[in-house]
Amino acid sequence: MASVDSHSDEQNTLTKRSGSRVFLQYLGKKFNLDEDKATQEEVVCNISRGVEFQGTNLWVLIFATFVASIGLNVNSAAVIIGAMLISPLMGPIMGIGLSIGINDFELLKRSLRNFGFMVLVSIVTSTLYFLISPLDQAQSELLARTTPTTYDVLIAFFGGLAGIVAQSRKDRTSTVIPGVAIATALMPPLCTAGFGLGTGQLNYFFGAFYLFFINTVFIALATYCIVRFLKYDKKEFVDKVREMRVKRYMVLTVLITLIPSFFIAYRIVQRTWFETNADRFVTNVLRFDKAKVIDYKRVYHPDSSLIDVVLLGDVISQDAIENAQAQLSAYNLDKTRLVVRQSRDTEQVDFSTMQLSYSELLHEKNKQIKDLQQRLSQRKVDSVAAKDICRELGAIVGPVSRIALSKSIEYSPAGAPQDTTMLCVIVRDKTSGKIDRDKVVKWLQVRTQTEKSEIVYRIKHGLRKDMS
Q1: Which terminus of the chain is more solvent-facing, meaning fewer CB atoms within 10 Å of its CB: N or C?
Q2: Which secondary structure element, helix H or strand E, spans residue 364, and what is its range?
Q3: CB 67 within 8 A of CB 79
Q4: What's this model's pTM, rounded to 2 decimal places?
Q5: 239 by DSSP, 3-state: which?
Q6: How far apart are CA 243 and CA 229, in angstroms?
């Protein structure tokens, strides 16, 4: 009996292993990149052609730079996207990653040389444009390219992965490469750097070039990763001494490029995390009954960060501010200093921000007043007109004791307004003759310009209501 159970357990184990093997084979087939893979020679030849910047590529780069600069200048996202589609910036960057992956020092030199030339041409072109452009205000599309975030790093890396995978296929007519060009956004930061030089605002130049550098490094890194994943053959040297020297140069180039980029990426992650926590802190903690946060700034520094808040309204007590400071640690803001500027700190408050807040508040109040006036006009009946209508109605319906006229709003059971009705109450003697209700209703609708009227007859002890 024991041998039968043992045999059954072995069968179950074999069945499970067989099922796992089949499942892994299925996944391997689904994720296999070898089926439509182009040869290494085709991929290297195609990327090498894109590395060169002369003739057509150079002119297209210049035109794309002008288009992107104009798009940033007029704040048009559609124009910027068009410029990213036509710009040939991906070639040298992918050439750098490919050359490192296959140990091709000559391709690396050409890629770096053309990359530097490409950057120089783009910045000079955009600088010239912004020097002659009459518009020198930094729009939102331009400002978005001055400060890199964690998402820019991720987009550049995964976009680079998609780009080199598409380049390694036999069919390169897909929309992947244009999509990568849009997602990684290489052209706008270069044009923003040109804006910084053209307008003399070097902080824009360094911030935008910083973003471009991040995108470049991680696209090249993604290219290298896929090249090694596809196991492309490395270039062999006949002269072993030269091969070792070339390898040292390449390793040094990679370290010079990657080490700062990882440090920069780490700082970007830290700053993004700080800004997220600061937003949560301001939203959840700085909520007061008689004061409102109209503006705040987040300044990140590894040793001592700052949250600078401007309050509008009644002055908040020092105890309330100290209580808010005590909650900084709960939002992982231990090394952060909280500065609260209130209405009494007039010399420190940004009056342009206050003016904007007042304008928004005034606009909202005017909107509420207009809405209330409209609702009031629906209910209001001019007293002189009501007197005239009552006299005319008395002439139509004959002898009456009293007439009342008013607008009435109908409500649903839930309390929501449904419709407006003209309500007419006619008090008559019992001996008075019959009234032509349809005639009176039609006349009342025309006279009062309402689509719905309600007539209530009051005869001695009773009420009778007619409605149309």
Answers
A1: N
A2: helix 351-379
A3: yes
A4: 0.57
A5: coil
A6: 23
